[in-house]
Amino acid sequence: MDTLPKVLPKVLAPLPIEDLTLLKVNKTDGHIMGTTVMGDEPANAIVDKHLIHHQIRNLMVLGGSVFPTCAPANPTLTISALTLWAVDQL
Fold first, then answer.
1. Using an 8 Å Cβ cutoff, are 80 and 47 in contact?
2. Is 47 helix (H, G, I), strand (E, B) or coil?
């Protein structure tokens, strides 16, 4: 992050930007979840209950992204169990 304030103005120089303000980023941890949600309906979910993509039927999506809601604590064991279950389904 130390080099970003030095490099970014040079990278963006060709663009018509009048003002560039870099905000301080607080270092934090997080679990990115729910971006390829599991569900029965393709209209509101990416994968089905077997973790198979609704539109690309030969694609299985594994990981915390299939959770329909975020876990209140570390999801690693649940992700591992779900992955092992999915592999057994192949």
1. no
2. strand
**Phi/psi at 47 (nearest 5 deg)?**
-120, 155
First to last CA, the chain: 42
Average confidence score pLDDT of the chain: 88
Tokens standing for residue 23: 């905000």
Question: With 60 as the cut, is the pLDDT of residue 82 above it?
Answer: yes
Q: What percent of the chain has pLDDT over 70?
A: 98
Q: How does DSSP assign 52-65, residue by residue?
A: BBSSSTT-B--SGG
Q: Which of 57, 84, 82, 88 is nearest to 68 (CA)?
A: 82
Sign of CA dihedral 10, 14, 18, 21: negative
